[in-house]
Structures are given as structure tokens and as C-alpha cells.
Amino acid sequence: MSDPQPLGRLIDSLGVEHRPAEGELVLGAVVLMKVMEADGRISMRSAWSPGLSWMERVGMHQAAARADLPPRPEPGWDTRELDADMGSDMGRDDTDLG
Fold it and tell me: Which residue stretches does the UniProt record annotate as biased composition, category Basic and acidic residues (predicted)?
């Protein structure tokens, strides 16, 4: 295993950007990486700013995941058409548990 290296140039080369709003100050970062291993396997890695607690890191992961989810339709909308776009019914159980 190699020594840890700063991610600045790597992140820059991938085209990742952030445009801070007026007065915004970035206090920490969690970086999620899709990595191809030497044997060709694909895996996920993460790195974070020094000083971030585990709770901050988990919260940042959850906030990022929530921000990436597609918007949910308002209650009462007919979602059958949206559900059909999700592909086959692989393992889906439509049992009403309510």
C-alpha cells in the first residue's frame, strides 16, 4: 500500500468544482471515490478532512445521498407510471403493510 497523498490534483483532474456563495466558508470535506483496483475490480473509497468527527462524516454522507435522490412526487399523485420506469419487478413485494 502506498503512502497517503493529497487529493487536490486528482479531484481537479476529474473536473470536480464548487462555486462558493458570497460569504460561504468551506469547513470540511468528505470525498467519495470510485476506484479501479490493480486487478480490474471496482470499489469505493472515501477520504475526509482532518478534524471531522465520525458523526460529521456520516451526516455529510447522508446529506449528499439525500441531495442526489430524485424528487418524490407529492402525496396523492399516481406514481404507477414512475414505478414502471424502474424496470422489472425484481424482488419487489407490493404487499400492503398499512
Answer: 69-83
Residue 71's SS3 state is coil
Q: What CA–CA distance (Å, rounded) separates 31 from 41?
A: 20
Cβ neighbours for 37, distance < 8 A, ≥ 6 positions apart: 43
The Cα–Cα gap between 18 and 44 comes to: 22
Q: Please work out, in degrees rounded to the nearest 5, the angle formed at the alpha carbon of residue 42 by the alpha carbons of 39 and 43.
A: 115
Strands (E), 1-98: 30-36, 42-48
**pLDDT tens for residues 25-68?**
999 999 999 999 999 999 999 999 999 999 999 999 999 988 88
pLDDT digit string, tens, across residues 1-30 = 678 888 899 999 999 998 999 999 999 999
